[in-house]
Design goal:
The chain has 171 residues and is an all-alpha fold. The chain has nine helices and no strands. Helix 4 packs antiparallel against helix 6. The radius of gyration is 26 Å and the shape is elongated.
């Protein structure tokens, strides 16, 4: 039974970034930038502005986005920024990228965010597994408790931490 639970929890944590998180990144790529200011600063033509705003309104809800990217949610980044580059042109896109993404490729920025999320999930999983292995006992405190108990000076009675029902806890 424990093996089954472990396998299932590994599967859940290995899925990492859910599709709704990808959609949230997509929405942030639109809402985190003041597109009116971008159009004004880069001196975009009326046609470029129109195309850019149409691109931003392309997927107004999760369902419309999911119909296109549900099978490959990573693809939105490449598609979106390739379209922005096509609309703006290479030189204006480079200026846009330098100002809003510090010269980095926006696709790489969102991929880094995704990977950061995954590493946080792995850390959470490892913490949970560590607590399970130690049966909820704070190993560092328990080691200190054992070390002080061997000294036979009574200092082991004052070690803070989770000692379960062993040792004095004042309760």
């Amino acid at each position: 039974m424990k093996k089954l639970i472990t396998i299932l929890s590994l599967g859940i944590f290995s899925l990492g970034y859910s599709q709704s998180d990808y959609y949230n990144d997509y929405r942030r790529s639109i809402t985190d930038v003041n597109w009116q200011t971008v159009a004004a600063n880069l001196l975009l033509s009326p046609q470029q502005k129109s195309d850019l705003f149409a691109l931003n309104n392309q997927y107004s809800d999760y369902d419309s986005w999911n119909r296109i990217y549900g099978h490959n949610p990573d693809q939105w980044r490449t598609d979106r920024y390739a379209s922005i580059e096509r609309i703006m042109g290479p030189s204006k896109y480079e200026k846009f990228k330098n100002k809003y993404y510090k010269g980095r490729n926006p696709v790489a920025v969102y991929n880094r965010n995704k990977n950061n999320y995954k590493s946080n999930q792995v850390k959470k999983y490892n913490t949970i597994q560590s607590k399970k292995r130690n049966n909820g006992v704070n190993t560092k405190s328990m080691n200190e408790y054992q070390r002080r108990k061997k000294l036979n000076d009574g200092s082991h009675l004052h070690v803070k931490g989770n000692m379960n029902s062993k040792g004095k806890s004042g309760k």
